[in-house]
Specification:
single chain, 428 residues, alpha+beta, D-Maltodextrin-Binding Protein, domain 2, 2 domains, 9-stranded mixed β-sheet, 18 helices
Length: 428
Amino acid sequence: MKILSKYLTTVGVASILGLSTAATAATDLTMYYPVAVGGSLTKIVDGMVDQFEAQNPDINVNAIYAGNYNDARVKALAALQSGSPAQLSVMFSIDIHELRNLEAIVAFDDVVSTNEEREWLNSFYPALMENGNADGKTWGVPFQRSTIVMYYNKDMFRAAGLDPEMPPTTWEEFISMGQKLTQKDGSGTVQQWGAMIPSTGYPYWMFGALTKQNSEVLMNQAGTETYFDKPGVVEALEYWQDLGNKHAMMPKGMIEWGTLRQNFLDEKTAIMWHSTGNLTTVKNKASFDFGVAKLPGNKELGSPTGGGNFYIFKDSTDEEKKAALKFVKFMTSAEQAAHWSKSTGYMGVGPSAYETETLKTYLKAFPPAAVARDQLTHATAELSTHEAGRVRKFLDDAIQAALTGQSSAEDALTDAQKQAERILRRYK
């Protein structure tokens, strides 16, 4: 009996240990993450992941930094096809239609299960959700989100006799001030440009600001139609052309996205339009007094939203989906969103972030950090369609052809519209 009792005890202990081991086995998550614009984003994300893992020892998150947004999408989708898929990723908010067509992602509505989780899903700024919703469901949750803002050199404004607290608010003021801010040497060579708007990298994004300011949108919500050839859209591109060709306040031709921030820091331009994601880097590196303002408007103010959303991949277990949801909730929580915004310059993705002491204190000391959030009341969705990469390329090529003088704005946009219609016809 003693031997049998000892055997049963041993078996019982082993069973208990086995159950305990199974119950505490970690869920491993792989996340692809884009690193595209300023700051030491990898260190910030790593710190947030470490904090999550400390609070959730049963979940391991492996963050793979994949380059820019396009790189992240390509690598994440390649992993899905390889049989070693990731469970989640931050990718372009505008990738939603492509990801759905590939049946690569799952709607967050199908993963949340509690009232608290549903409440969280409805806690984000509506303007940031426009590129995450389709067919009545939420497919992407905002995280690394931005609008285009206007950075300007207050010292240069003073030197030009302009009020440094009154940046341009209209297209006409933008031209007038831009011309006054453009400085030439004795030989007529420009030493300081009035303004620069980048036309490489994401020209369609910058153009989305100009069209919104002219009360136009570039596509419908379903991503099945584009409006590139509407008169108001053509007028917006003609205005962009004129800034360099007619008003001589901006360089003619192409302006590089990747070097524009440094040109601003080197005081080669008094104004730049760029992502709010550069705010913290500009704050830390500018050797001059600078300001941040909403973009100027024509018929109205306006900027497209931009940046990345969290997506959960369909090819994962229910346990992995739940763990991924828990991680996304953590990363977008009020305190973490506030920390993220202060550390990077990207906006807090919901009102609760701005109710934290972290952002209340930060905004009081550094008001420019509120500009991107405040601009959301004038925001529109970023260009997003089915086969988005091809459609964006048509528009990018049209913008660049017009800016370099290879085509008129009307001809370039008419051609882009015809090509987009050919691609999108099958999705109607």
